[in-house]
Amino acid sequence: MKLKDQFRFVQQNMKKNKTRLFMTILATAMSVAFLIVLASVGFGLHKSIVKETLERRIVTEIEVPGKEIESGGFSVLTDKDITFFEKIEDVKAVTRRKNLQDYSFEVDTHQTYAQAVVANMPAEIAAGLELAAGRLPEKGNEILVGYHFVENLRPAAENGEEVYDEQGNIKEEFRFKEDLIGKKVTMNVLKLEEGKELTESLELTIVGIRKQPTKEWVYDPLVFVSEDVLKKVEAFTGTPRGMMKDSNNADTDPLSIPADQYDHVKIYANDMESVKAITTELEANNYPSYSVINELKDVNVMFTIVKAGLIFIGTIAILIASIGIYNTMTMAVTERAPDIGIMKAIGANPGTIKKIFLLESSYIGLIGAAIGTIVAYAISFIVNFGLPLIIKQAFGEEPPEGLMFSHIPLSLPVISFVICYFVTILSGLRPAQRATKVDVLQAMRREV
Fold first, then answer.
1. Residue 435, Cβ neighbours under 10 Å: how many?
2. Strand partners, 119
3. Nearest 5 degrees, angle CA 316-CA 319-CA 320?
4. pTM metric for this prediction
5. How much is the pLDDT for 255?
6. Which helix (H) or strand (E) holds 275?
7. Tens digits of per-residue pLDDT, 10-20?
8. Could you give the CA distance from residue 206 to residue 204 in angstroms, rounded to a whole number?
């Protein structure tokens, strides 16, 4: 019997008991839809977390907190370490910063508090620093301010309760509305001496404003000052980085910090693929590092376990549905005993008979899997659209923006089809083998 004839024979037989066939396919479709929807929750949450992680961090950024030493601690990074980092293959830039204290900055009649930072500007530019206005500092008294620096400026003479609104933002009428570029700024540096606070005012000029961060949640009020300003601060305070002395131990000598020591060092790779090789090189030389790749590795391992567990649970539903397929195929063998007897009488090969029944069980499984997949996609769409509305209305909570409750990648339906097909073949195997053993004489008498 040709394969085309076998398919035609299977289709004709499946039409004889449409109700039983429909219920079997329905059970299979429900089990496949359950598997896909259940597993899609794991895929959806995984995708949401990966997306949020990538948005919160630059994918080519590697943070290096220090270097491990034999005693078990960490040594702070210096110019020697920076030189080593810059020689690593595929390193685009190495930014290094020295953090000062938060100081009062006065612009005309407005003031704000912001952290001062000393940075290597060529490295910052190579890492992607961009300006919204102005230029980079060129002289010792020129500074670069963060994009949100102006938003924190408030009138110095006004009462704080009158300046801020209910959300804690400065009211529109009190905002600084002039152009910052070229403005003179007074940086007030404090120190403690004999229990009294003394102030040194440094006159600086704003020459540039950093570009607005691409992520809305990133806040940038930093003030980038020069090494000259740092030296003046340290000369006045008598402490490294302008640290305030402990008022309870004024005679205690402050901790000595070398001039080439950095508080914050980041390495930027040429591309995402280079990050792993760079981190491996760093670890081999006792430099612990942190990057998005490290974080994603842990996230991927965790969610791989979760998704495998959900797929396993969904497979149990398909195994339950396979009982219906087994019952349907067993009844089919019983009902078609005369047909099987005739096929054997005219010389049909037992392998052909077995193949016909396996084709029928495959039909049931694949049709059920196709319908289940379509239903699963529909449910996934409804869940992603409707569940946030339900949560908002029922609990009064706003779900995180961009959270995906269900995601069905192409691999998930493929996995479901493979599992379903494998299970249906196993379900139809025993009845198919039974069909090959039907006695011709008994079959002709309509008995199995």
1. 28
2. 97
3. 90
4. 0.65
5. 59
6. helix 272-284
7. 666 666 677 88
8. 7
